[in-house]
Amino acid sequence: MSTPINQQVAHILLEKQAVILQPDDPFTWASGIKSPIYCDNRQLLSYPKERRIVAEGLADLIKTYYPEATVIAGTATAGIPHAAWVSEVLGLPMIYVRSKAKDHGRKSQIEGKLSPNDKVVLIDDLISTGGSVLEACRPVAERATVLGVAAIFTYNLKRAENNFKEAGQTLHILTDLHTLLEVASRDHGLTPDQLETVKAFHHRLNEN
């Protein structure tokens, strides 16, 4: 029996250190929060076999949930390469969305051809609160139809769920923190005490 894609991707993220669990030596996030988990899916750029599995997984999400998609959009900057690989798998055009419009030249925020009748799926690598990708949806929605978002990994934060609901956007994910912790405990040496540390941190985040 084949391994479900959410577990496959969780294993890849852990093996290639795109997600690192350090309950005994926490990271410091930009916000100053001490965190036992750090996600940097840019690490996947260096692994052709694994990034292909991720791209095909995202493409399958799109074929399942957004079959009418005509354009794949990448969010700057981390979503851009994944959107390129997904658009290649699907044989669809690609655009990417800057965090803000350029202040020179054509002053574009969206790069690539986008028509009013296009139906767009945005690709992001990580969903924490969802704020950045939802911000990227806005300029696209002004020019075409946004079908929703597909992403590699989410922290399973209630704030993200609420933000997507409030924005009226749908989200589909390859894998999430709950699955990753299950795989880490089973296959990557995460001890029961370390597991509880990460779960307690996640609970605190969701309470804020």
From TrEMBL:
Cofactor(s) demanded: Mg(2+)
One Pfam family here: Pribosyltran
Source species: Aerococcus christensenii
UniProt-listed InterPro entries: OPRT, Or_phspho_trans_dom, PRTase-like, PRTase_dom
Descriptive protein name: Orotate phosphoribosyltransferase
Binding site for orotate: 128
Record family assignment: Belongs to the purine/pyrimidine phosphoribosyltransferase family. PyrE subfamily.
Stored SUPFAM superfamilies: PRTase-like
Keyword Transferase: yes
Catalytic activity: orotidine 5'-phosphate + diphosphate = orotate + 5-phospho-alpha-D-ribose 1-diphosphate
GO molecular function: magnesium ion binding; orotate phosphoribosyltransferase activity
Quaternary state and interactors: Homodimer.
Pathway named in the protein's UniProt entry: Pyrimidine metabolism; UMP biosynthesis via de novo pathway; UMP from orotate: step 1/2
Function: Catalyzes the transfer of a ribosyl phosphate group from 5-phosphoribose 1-diphosphate to orotate, leading to the formation of orotidine monophosphate (OMP).
GO biological processes: 'de novo' UMP biosynthetic process; pyrimidine nucleobase biosynthetic process
Keywords: Glycosyltransferase, Magnesium, Pyrimidine biosynthesis, Transferase
Binding site for 5-phospho-alpha-D-ribose 1-diphosphate: 98, 102, 104, 124-132
Source organism, top-level taxon: Bacteria
EC id: 2.4.2.10
Phosphoribosyltransferase domain mapped to chain residues: 43-153
